[in-house]
Amino acid sequence: WLSALESTKWLQHLSVMLKAALLVSNAVDREGRPVLVHCSDGWDRTPQIVALAKILLDPYYRTMEGFQVLVESDWLDFGHKFGDRCGHQEKVEDQNEQCPVFLQWLDAVHQLLKQFPCLFEFNEAFLVKLVQHTYSCLYGTFLGNSPCER
């Protein structure tokens, strides 16, 4: 199982994401510098890193209300392509568009939660429920590729 996990490079992706978020938060908080975060297309790594940095910088985003605001602003309103990335679209033109970007981010949040449980208002069960509903299609929240589609 561990070899299969290693072959996905999942943990490497998490490590790089957490390091980038730490770099951003240190630049903003300790060095007082503005930061611009932008990946190749702006849809995937950008919200991962920015949303993680916000969690590191501001305790509000570690509350239930703050986390909801963060997901809504940095993922839903930002226009993350949940339909393509989660495979919810009926007519998927390119299977390569599927990618667990949001799930990776939630796992990174989980890693922070495991290290600093007293700094979060929510727990692991909340994150698991969020993952379940991201893929359950029971609610329209994580369907579509834009706020307009949702």
Helix and strand arrangement:
Layout: H1 2-8, H2 10-29, H3 45-57, H4 64-76, H5 82-86, H6 101-115, H7 124-136
The number of domains: 1
- Which H/E pattern describes the elements? HHHHHHH
Task: State the total count of DSSP E strands.
Answer: 0
Class by alpha and beta content: mainly alpha
What is the overall number of helices? 7
Q: Describe the largest sheet.
A: none
Radius of gyration: 15 Å
Helical fraction equals 55-70%
Strand content: under 5%
Instruction: Report how far the terminal alpha carbons are from each other.
Output: 37 Å
GO cellular component, one term: cytoplasm
Main location: membrane
GO molecular function: phosphatidylinositol-3,5-bisphosphate 3-phosphatase activity; phosphatidylinositol-3-phosphate phosphatase activity; protein phosphatase binding
Subcellular location: Endomembrane system
Would you give an account of this structure?
The chain has 150 residues and is mainly alpha-helical. The protein has one domain (16-29, 36-136). It contains 7 helices and no strands. The chain is globular and about 45 Å long. The mean pLDDT is 90. Residues 8-52 form the Tyrosine specific protein phosphatases domain.
Primary descriptors:
7 helices, 150 residues, Myotubularin-like_Pase_dom, 57% helix, mainly alpha
